[in-house]
Write a structure and sequence with these properties.
By secondary structure, this protein is an alpha/beta fold. Helix content is about 50%, strand content about 15%.
Length: about 250
């Protein structure tokens, strides 16, 4: 069975639905219960809805414990919950910095830490973190977001090296700009700060990717499914950005 965090919208919803189509029972977690219920209703297989703020110190234990109490141990963990923020370096506040680290780095760490012992004991596990191409390259005005994503890719690589002989793989997928509510917020931020129209802002993001368009959430979900299916893929940060970052 699989657990997907941040499963109420966007990439997380697409991942939950893809894993469900692939035959997994899927537990979905996010803060908004109505979003989770809507996402779960679109999954063809059995689902479990577990509302939680994944940044809470006890959230990983409560969510994974809830899955274990209902279905048993988690076989596949997709740590997708995340968010972005934008500000110049000099104007990035402590609160922005701490939120990015809490949500994009500490929360995945806690979920992985909680899931690993059981996976190792059974000799099988698949962990996939939804990172970002910001884990591979810096970009202006997103220093807190970029730092958190670089950090989570480091976590993935270290965990993969440590667990390689155990039957547990740990990978990251690193999307560029995806057709999601998060990108809609980015477009709104550009409009507010620059005076561009929404269409101009969106086009600017599309042009950052050589394919000339936004990535779809389903394309990211396909990459997650690949990491889950292939046990020889380990410690990787798989870019899904139309070729913007070649690594």
């Amino acid at each position: 069975m699989a657990l997907v965090t941040g499963a109420g919208r966007g990439i997380g919803r697409a991942v939950a639905q893809r894993l469900s189509r692939d035959g997994y029972r899927v537990a979905l977690s996010a803060r908004n219960e109505s979003d989770l219920s809507e996402a779960a209703s679109a999954c063809p297989g059995e689902t479990l809805v577990l509302p939680a703020d994944i940044t809470a110190a006890d959230a990983a234990d409560r969510v994974l414990g809830g899955v274990e109490d209902t279905w048993g141990p988690v076989e596949v963990l997709v740590a997708n919950a995340g968010a972005g923020t934008s500000a110049s370096l000099a104007k990035t506040t402590d609160a922005q910095w701490e939120r990015m680290l809490d949500l994009n780095l500490t929360a995945p760490f806690r979920c992985i830490r909680r899931a690993v012992p059981g996976m190792v004991e059974r000799g099988f596990g698949r962990i996939v973190v939804v990172a970002s191409v910001a884990a591979k390259a810096g970009e202006p005005y997103i220093c807190a977001y970029t730092a958190s994503k670089h950090g989570v890719l480091g976590l993935v690589r270290s965990a993969a090296a440590e667990l390689a002989s155990s039957g547990v793989t740990v990978n990251a997928v690193c999307p560029g700009y995806v057709e999601t509510p998060m990108t809609e917020s980015t477009v709104a931020g550009i409009v507010e700060k620059t005076g561009r129209t929404p269409e101009e802002a969106r086009t600017a993001l599309e042009r950052k990717q050589p394919i000339g368009r936004l990535v779809s959430a389903d394309e990211v979900a396909q990459a997650v499914a690949f990491c889950v299916a292939n046990g020889a893929v380990n410690g990787q940060g798989v870019n899904i950005d139309g070729g913007a970052v070649q690594s």
